[in-house]
Specification:
The complex is a heterodimer of chains A (381) and B (291).
Chain A (H helix, E strand, L loop, with lengths): L4 H10 L8 E3 L2 H11 L3 E6 L11 E4 L2 H11 L3 E2 L2 E2 L2 E6 L5 E10 L4 E7 L6 H7 L5 E4 L8 H11 L3 H20 L2 E11 L5 E3 L3 E4 L8 H4 L9 H8 L3 E4 L4 E5 L2 H13 L6 E4 L6 H12 L6 E8 L4 H14 L6 E7 L2 H10 L4 E2 L2 H12 L6
Helix pairs in contact in A: 2-3, 5-6, 10-11, 11-12
Chain B lengths: L9 E5 L4 H13 L2 E6 L7 E2 L3 E4 L2 H8 L3 E4 L3 H13 L4 E4 L6 H13 L3 E3 L5 E4 L3 E4 L8 E8 L3 H12 L4 E6 L10 H10 L5 E7 L4 H12 L4 E6 L11 H6 L6 H10 L3 E2 L5 H9 L3
Parallel strand pairs in B: 1-2, 1-5, 2-4, 5-6, 6-7, 10-11, 10-12, 12-13, 13-14
Antiparallel strand pairs in B: 3-4, 8-9, 8-11
The chains are: A alpha+beta (381), B alpha/beta (291).
Chain lengths: 381, 291
């Protein structure tokens, strides 16, 4: 789960990380009032779960409160990578001498949380990694001991020659490590970590992603979720306990299991079609899930054919069949449907489907070919 | 023959009285697996289906029954502790089915289990099955058949799909292992390939990977350098949108974006067969089996 910059900054602040003050506004007048309160030049920053905010025009400097109001009116409502901006953060502009990067992520190769720091900050860290990898220092942290002071100092000296700044950075990294663990994060980033002309070290930006698996035991983090900042179809899917990612094609896919779901999308493409989505109904078999899955898929006007691919293990295929019948009785389908199911209670499922005017196939390749042909407006083979 | 589990497997079920645990314990017993004990704190002294003794702790269960393998069905908040408890009690093979284990928990569990010398499979995996001998986990027994092919996969139902197609074509399996798709898991492709290479009954290996990370590329290097047996590979997610399943920083740290194209290229470079579709495994494996 992603949280906003202002929420991440609040968490960083609680852990002692020096973060400039800032307040949020949802209206241009609100932004103006905050700018007036701070005085001087402020930065108006779009709060949205997408990278590249600056490039998209979502981060602007305002010299006066009137300018802050005008910029906020442009940024609020703006679309960045398909997501609408509903909130801006207004924060005093800082004088910047240097920009660095500091982050922690969980690394699957070393099976540890790993620090990454670079004196080349303020730009995409991907770009630094690609062009000047020697400017990135990595440090896997042993979970049994946590970040040790000497390790933090090594990273601090990699960022700054000046011992005072290296010490300040080491302190910030130690606080970042605490914030990362206390939040159940999978990623924590400060980009840029700046020095001011006076020599202070500050976190000008903050990014924190929380491991979805932590949310049940961290209600304080779960409460930070901002649904207005997420794609509506993905919110609906999450509420229905489904994993859904919208794509650009026209074959709507409903599959159980992430690997099989991806393999099904690949097969759609192999036979010349384009998948409209990734949708995993998961392991348990609940007709209600199927009803929700169909509702989400049929809401996409691009979908020209629906493909079910269910391999029953824990999932009972008769539950899936019942779900399809219930859903289509309530809302008759406007596009053709191809159903492939095999495994647990397959015979019962086929009976249910046949009795309700549907047909089912047992072969995955056959089903995908049919769905692709139907989506193209042809007749099923 | 097989890898990791066989007729000598003495299985202990952690969370045996839960909804999933009890359902799958019945299935595993029906398949012929020797389920010697169950653990549910507070239910020690009771019996599962009037036969399998239940204990309060894993240590008690191991001491009383000589269990050498454990399968875990406990809910996510307790899974890390369950894995560590099994390792501390001296269980040699720990299979964690639980989905949704926090990754920071796994950064602690992984080194702990290693230190105790145990093998961990999972979490978030379907477990494993040696057709005709034993089943530990949730892979449906009836889609498998004994035979010469080792199967290893990062996903659940995709494993079923491939195994089902192989069995339907008359090609059986030594052992099918689902290693799970979480960022940190106990057993990787190379561990399984190494075991299949050593297992005299395994004559060829089918391997199903996914986009993300570099495990498949490293496995391909292992195949090239260390394996004499033929391996056929598949990558799910060739059409998945980039950047949605994994953070950018994750890709950087692995030194690669973990794309399907890159993984398939590694397979080809290692002389492996490359299945474009799940059904292609049948032909590619058949061609590589000794006649």
């Amino acid at each position: 789960m992603n949280i906003h910059e202002y929420q991440a900054k609040e968490i960083f602040r609680r852990h002692g990380i020096p973060v400039p003050p800032g307040e949020t506004a949802t209206t241009p007048a609100g932004a103006e009032a905050i700018a007036k309160k701070f005085g001087g030049t402020v930065v108006v920053k779009a709060q949205v779960h997408a990278g590249g905010r600056g490039k998209a025009g979502g981060v602007k400097l305002a010299k006066t409160p009137a300018e802050a109001k005008e910029l906020a009116s442009k940024i609020l409502g703006m679309q960045i990578k398909g997501l609408t901006v509903h909130t801006v953060l207004v924060t005093p502009a800082a004088d910047i001498a240097t920009e660095a990067y500091a982050g922690i992520i969980v690394d699957r190769a070393s099976k540890r949380a790993v620090f990454m720091v670079s004196p080349a900050g303020g730009i995409d860290i991907e770009e630094v990694a690609a062009k000047t990898p020697e400017k990135i220092r990595r440090l896997p942290v042993d979970p049994r001991y946590g970040l040790q002071p000497f390790e933090a100092m090594q990273l601090g000296f990699f960022l700054y020659k000046d011992v005072k700044q290296a010490r300040a950075a080491a302190k910030i990294l130690t606080q970042l490590w605490a914030a990362f663990n206390a939040s159940g994060a999978s990623l924590a980033e400060i980009n840029p970590l700046v020095t001011t002309p006076a020599g202070d070290v500050l976190a000008l930006d903050a990014k924190l992603s929380v491991d979805d698996n932590e949310l049940d035991r961290r209600p304080d983090m779960a409460a930070l979720r901002d649904e207005t900042a997420e794609a509506p179809s993905e919110v609906a899917a999450r509420k229905a306990n489904l994993t859904f990612i919208k794509l650009d094609g026209n074959v709507g896919c409903v599959v159980n299991g992430a690997g099989l779901a991806m393999a099904t999308m690949d097969l759609v493409k192999y036979y010349g079609g384009e998948p409209a989505n990734f949708l995993d109904i998961g392991g348990s078999s609940n007709p209600e899930k199927v009803v929700n899955a169909l509702r989400i898929i049929t809401a996409d006007p691009n979908v020209k054919a629906i493909l079910f691919n269910i391999f029953g293990g824990i999932t009972r295929t008769d539950d899936v069949a019942n779900g399809i019948v219930t859903a289509t009785k309530a809302n008759p389908l406007k596009v053709p449907i191809v159903i492939r199911l095999t495994g647990t209670n397959e015979e019962i499922a086929v009976k249910i489907l046949t009795a309700n005017g549907f047909s089912a196939v047992t072969d995955m390749d056959e089903a995908v070919q049919k769905a692709v042909a139907l989506a193209k407006g042809g007749k099923a083979a | 023959m097989s890898i990791f589990i066989d007729k000598n497997t003495r299985l202990l079920v952690q969370g045996i009285t839960g909804r999933d645990g009890s359902f799958h314990t019945k299935q595993m017993r029906e398949y012929g697996t020797k389920v010697v004990a169950g653990v549910t704190p507070g239910k020690g002294g009771q019996k599962f289906e009037d036969t399998v003794p239940i204990f309060d702790t894993v240590a008690d269960a191991v001491a009383a029954t000589g269990a050498n393998t454990s399968v875990i069905y406990v809910p996510p908040p307790f899974a890390a502790d369950a894995m560590m408890e099994a390792a501390e009690a001296g269980v040699a093979l720990i299979v964690c089915i639980t989905e949704g284990v926090p990754v920071l928990d796994m950064t602690r569990v992984y080194p702990f289990v290693k230190e105790k010398g145990a093998r961990l499979i999972g979490p978030n995996c379907p477990g494993l099955i040696s057709p005709g001998a034993a089943k530990v986990g949730i892979i449906p027994g009836r889609i498998c058949a004994p035979g010469p092919v080792g199967v290893v996969s990062r996903s659940g139902t995709l494993t079923y799909e491939v195994v089902y197609q192989l069995t339907r074509a008359g090609i059986g399996q030594t052992t099918c292992v689902g290693i799970g798709g979480d960022p940190i898991n106990g057993t990787n492709f190379i561990d399984c390939l190494e075991a299949f290479e050593k297992d005299p009954a395994t004559k060829a290996v089918a391997m199903m990977g996914e986009i993300g990370g570099t495990d498949e590329q490293e496995a391909a290097r292992f195949v090239k350098e260390k394996m004499t047996k033929p391996v056929v590979g598949f990558i799910a997610g060739q059409t998945a949108p980039p950047g949605r399943r994994m953070g950018h920083a994750g890709a950087i740290i692995s030194g690669s974006a973990g794309t399907a194209a890159e993984k398939l290229e590694a397979f080809r470079a290692a002389g492996m067969g490359v299945a474009q579709r799940p059904i292609d495994f049948v032909q590619l494996i058949r061609e590589r089996l000794p006649r």
